[in-house]
């Protein structure tokens, strides 16, 4: 999608008005591993926003940056939070509506068949 598409759509990145506002009033404070850009207002540091690298979807901002956007931490995550631990998985965007949506065994999209109940299950019957 090019700049022309952003003039008429808001869901594929920043529109023309947001880009103009950001250029005039914003100060870039950081980027995340997905390529999203984070800004703070030059005059009022409590005003913060993100310009997504791709579709506008809040689940595409990692939890650390979500904390910064909401004012839960004052400084950017690299300075305010400890580094990610080795056992922590990276954040993933919401995959609903995509080809990578989680489909458990027994769901209609996987054939609608599930394993038979095992011996640890006893059906309820009314008395």
SSE layout and pairing:
Elements: H1 3-8, H2 16-25, E1 26-31, E2 37-41, E3 48-51, H3 63-69, H4 77-80
3D structure, described in words:
The chain is an alpha+beta fold and 127 residues long. The chain has a domain at 3-90. 21% of the residues lie in helices and 12% in strands. It contains four helices and three strands, in the order H-H-E-E-E-H-H. It has helices at residues 3-8, 16-25, 63-69, 77-80, and strands at residues 26-31, 37-41, 48-51. The chain has a three-stranded antiparallel sheet with strand order 1-2-3. A hairpin with a 6-residue loop joins strand 2 and strand 3 (48-51). The protein is elongated and about 70 Å long. The N and C termini lie far apart (63 Å). The mean pLDDT is 85.
How do the strands of the widest beta sheet line up side by side? 1-2-3
- Unreliable spans are none
What is the H/E string? HHEEEHH
The residue fraction in helices comes out at: 10-25%
Q: β content, as a range?
A: 5-15%
Rg result: 22 Å
What sort of overall outline do the alpha carbons produce when their principal axes are compared? elongated
How many DSSP H or I helices? 4
């Amino acid at each position: 999608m090019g700049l022309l598409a952003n003039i008429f759509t808001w869901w594929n990145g920043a529109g023309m008005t947001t880009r103009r506002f950001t250029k005039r009033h914003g100060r870039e404070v950081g980027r995340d591993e997905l390529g999203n850009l984070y800004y703070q207002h030059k005059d009022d540091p409590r005003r913060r926003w993100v310009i997504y690298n791709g579709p506008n979807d809040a689940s595409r901002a990692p939890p650390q940056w979500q904390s910064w956007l909401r004012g839960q931490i004052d400084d950017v995550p690299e300075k305010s939070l400890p580094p990610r631990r080795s056992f922590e998985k990276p954040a993933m965007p919401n995959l609903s509506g995509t080809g990578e949506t989680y489909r458990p065994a027994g769901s209609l999209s996987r054939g609608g068949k599930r394993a038979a109940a095992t011996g640890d299950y006893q059906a309820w019957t009314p008395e």
